[in-house]
Design a protein that fits this description.
454 residues, alpha+beta, BirA Bifunctional Protein, domain 2, 2 domains, 7-stranded antiparallel beta sheet, 6-stranded mixed beta sheet, 14 helices, globular
Length: 454
C-alpha cells in the first residue's frame, strides 16, 4: 500500500483497523475499521463493491483515508467541519481509478439532503465518481438512497447507500459460507463483525415503526379515508420499506443465502415510483405487502399487513400437480411435504380454483386427516393452486410501534422454518417412451426379402 493521498487532498489519515481515537468518536472509529476491512479482505470488498455495480478482480487495489480535507478548502477556509467527509476510497483496476466519498453516521443520526448535496458538489469539483452514505437506515437496494435527490444533481456523480446492518450481514454471510480463502483475512473480518455487533459501535437495527403508525392504524380501523399524499402515509410506507429490508437481512443467516426484497423492474429503477405506488396501495386498500425471494425456495414468501384487520399474513403459493386426477390426490401431494409439529405458528392450507369457483381454506392438520374437507360446495372444479399460510391477529397490540415489529420479525422466520422450507414445487414428470406395435405384414415382408445365408 502506497498510502499516498490523491492530489486534490491536503489532509487525510490512512484508514486503520485499530484506530487510535477517543471512545466518544464512534462514527470515526466505525468508519476507519470498515474501510480498513475493505482494504484487508478481498472477498469482502468484492462483495460490497459488487452491490453498487463495481467489478473487483484479484489484482484490483483499494486504498482508503478518513477525515479527508480538500486543498481548495484549506486555502479558502470557507468550509466548516460539517463539510468534511468521513472517508475517501480509491479503487485502482490498473486501467483506471474510481473514487468515492464516504459519509457515515451511527445511532439515530442521518445524512440530510443539504449535507448530501454539499458532498455531491465536492465530488463534482474534484472529479470524484460517487458518494456512499452509511447509516442505520435501510434501503431495498444499495443503489437506492434514503434521501431523495433531483436527477439533475446526479449527472456526473452517483449516490449509494449501505446500512450498518447490511454491511455486517454481508460479512456474516461470507464467513458462514466459508467464502474467504485466507485464514488471516477470515480472522480480521470475524473481529470486525464482533466489533460492529457490539451496541457500543453505534450500529442499530430497525426496531420501531414511525411515530404516525398508531394514527394510520386507527384511521384504517375506523374506515376513515387515508390521503396517499399525507405525511403520515408517506412516513408509514417509508418505515415499511426499511422494515422489508431488515426482514431480509434477518433471514440471511437463517438460510445461509442472500434473501432479497423482490421488486418489479419499475420499482428497482425508480425508488420514487415505488414509494408513490405503495402509498397509493396503503391509502386505497389499507394494505402493506412485501415479496421476499429466498434462493431455491419453492415459491416467493409474501408478507401482507392488513391494517384495517390488524393482522399479519405470511404465505407461499404453489401450483397444484397436474398429473393428479382427484382433489384428494392433489391435496395429499401437498400435505405429505409438511411435517407434523406442535411448535411454530398455526399453518393453514387454501385451495384455489379457476374462475368463479369458491376458494376454501382449513387448518393443516384437519386437511391432513381429511383431504376432502377442502372440497368446495356446488362445484367439481379441482384446485389449480395451493396457498400455505399463517395469519396473526394482533388486536390492540397491532398499533404499538415496537410491538408490531417484534411480532412481524418473529412470524416471518417462524413460518419459513416450520412450513416454507419444506415446500417443493410440482415438476411435470418426464415423458415416457411410447411402445409402438410392429405391423405383422411389414415383419413378414422383411423376412421374405432377407438374403439367405450361404
Amino acid at each position: 500500500m502506497s498510502e499516498t493521498r490523491p492530489d486534490y487532498t491536503s489532509q487525510g489519515k490512512y484508514a486503520r483497523l485499530i484506530p487510535t481515537l477517543a471512545d466518544s468518536k464512534k462514527e470515526e472509529r466505525a468508519t476507519s475499521i470498515l474501510l480498513a476491512a475493505l482494504m484487508s479482505v478481498y472477498e469482502f470488498r468484492k462483495a460490497m463493491l459488487q452491490s453498487i455495480n463495481l467489478r473487483v478482480g484479484a489484482r484490483t487495489k483499494l486504498e482508503a483515508w478518513t477525515e479527508v480535507v480538500f486543498k481548495d478548502e484549506t486555502l479558502a477556509k470557507k468550509k466548516g467541519p460539517d463539510d468534511r467527509p468521513d472517508g475517501l476510497i480509491v479503487l485502482d483496476t490498473g486501467r483506471k481509478k474510481w473514487h468515492a466519498l464516504i459519509e457515515a453516521k451511527v445511532g439515530s443520526e442521518t445524512v440530510g439532503e443539504e449535507q448530501l448535496l454539499k458532498y455531491i458538489k465536492q465530488a463534482k469539483e474534484h472529479g470524484i465518481d460517487a458518494v456512499i452514505t452509511i447509516t442505520n437506515q435501510f434501503v431495498a437496494l444499495p443503489t437506492h438512497h434514503p434521501v431523495s435527490i433531483p436527477k439533475k444533481n446526479l449527472r456526473s456523480v452517483e449516490i449509494f447507500h449501505w446500512s450498518w446492518t447490511y454491511i455486517v450481514t454481508m460479512a456474516q454471510l461470507l464467513l458462514t459460507q466459508d467464502k474467504i480463502e485466507s485464514q488471516d483475512q477470515r480472522f480480521i473480518l470475524h473481529e470486525v463483525v464482533k466489533y460492529l455487533e457490539d451496541p457500543s459501535s453505534g450500529k442499530t437495527g430497525f426496531t420501531s415503526m414511525n411515530a404516525e403508525w398508531k394514527t394510520v392504524v386507527q384511521s384504517a380501523f375506523n374506515n376513515s379515508k387515508l390521503n396517499k399524499n399525507s405525511d403520515e402515509v408517506l412516513k408509514t410506507v417509508s418505515s415499511w420499506h426499511q422494515e422489508q429490508r431488515e426482514l431480509c437481512l434477518q433471514m440471511w443467516p437463517l438460510v445461509g443465502e442472500k434473501v432479497e426484497v423482490k421488486l418489479p423492474r419499475t420499482h428497482r429503477n425508480d425508488p420514487k415510483q415505488r414509494l408513490t405506488d405503495d402509498c397509493d396501495k396503503l391509502a386505497s386498500e389499507q394494505l402493506l405487502s412485501s415479496t421476499i425471494a429466498i434462493p431455491n425456495a419453492a415459491a416467493d414468501l409474501l408478507v401482507t399487513v392488513d391494517i384495517a384487520r390488524k393482522s399479519i399474513t405470511c404465505s407461499m403459493r404453489l401450483e397444484a400437480p397436474k398429473d393428479k386426477k382427484s382433489s384428494s390426490a392433489k391435496i395429499n401431494w401437498l400435505t405429505r411435504q409438511l411435517p407434523t409439529s406442535e411448535k411454530g405458528p398455526a399453518i393453514r392450507v387454501k385451495a384455489i380454483r379457476k374462475g368463479q369457483a369458491m376458494d376454501t381454506d382449513k387448518p393443516l392438520e384437519e386437511v391432513r386427516q381429511n383431504p376432502v374437507i377442502l372440497d368446495a360446495e356446488n362445484t367439481d372444479s379441482l384446485p389449480v393452486y395451493f396457498e400455505v399460510f399463517t395469519s396473526l391477529d394482533l388486536g390492540g397490540k397491532f398499533s404499538g410501534n415496537r410491538v408490531f415489529i417484534e411480532h412481524l420479525e418473529k412470524i416471518v422466520p417462524d413460518f419459513y422454518r416450520y412450513a416454507g422450507q419444506y415446500l417443493k414445487a410440482w415438476v411435470a414428470p418426464a415423458p415416457r417412451v411410447k411402445h409402438v406395435e410392429e405391423d405383422p405384414e411389414e415383419e413378414t415382408e422383411a423376412q421374405l426379402t432377407k438374403p439367405d445365408d450361404d
